């Protein structure tokens, strides 16, 4: 999947769209809570529910992030950083919880030379060519 147009213009989006399937009764409960004014809309309810679950498991998540040595948040890998990794002979082991983005000016060849492995819990934004070049290195 190609990165969103915003990435091509140098701006990264602050969210990723997902699709979920819900049972009719669960959906009805959400609509009732929206109608009663507890939430602004369905999205507000779902975001709040997700945040509550993340908060509920925050200690376990923090321990996992530390144990797995994950970068937390948004991480952009640019041409200069990848060239430096390639030139040093120490390819990167990218591990991100959040958003990992590989700059548009990074060629597939540079990505292969500079990235030993890539694991992203969240979203990876990269050109289709770079994604293909890293397919065998994606965890």
TrEMBL record:
One of its GO terms (biological process) is regulation of DNA-templated transcription. InterPro entries: RHH_8, Ribbon_hlx_hlx. It comes from the Bacteria. PANTHER family: BLL4998 PROTEIN (PTHR36215). This is CopG family transcriptional regulator.
């Amino acid at each position: 999947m190609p990165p969103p147009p915003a990435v091509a213009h140098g701006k990264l989006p602050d969210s990723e769209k997902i699709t979920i399937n819900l049972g009719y009764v669960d959906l009805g409960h959400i609509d009732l809570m929206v109608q009663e004014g507890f939430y602004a809309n369905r999205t507000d309810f779902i975001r709040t529910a997700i945040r509550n679950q993340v908060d509920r498991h925050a200690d376990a998540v923090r321990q996992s992030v530390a144990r797995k040595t994950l970068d937390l948040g948004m991480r952009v890998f640019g041409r200069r950083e990848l060239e430096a990794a390639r030139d040093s002979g120490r390819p990167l082991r990218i591990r991100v919880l959040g958003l990992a983005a590989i700059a548009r000016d990074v060629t597939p060849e540079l990505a292969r030379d500079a990235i030993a492995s890539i694991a992203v819990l969240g979203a990876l934004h990269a050109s289709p060519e770079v994604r293909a070049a890293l397919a065998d290195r994606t965890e």
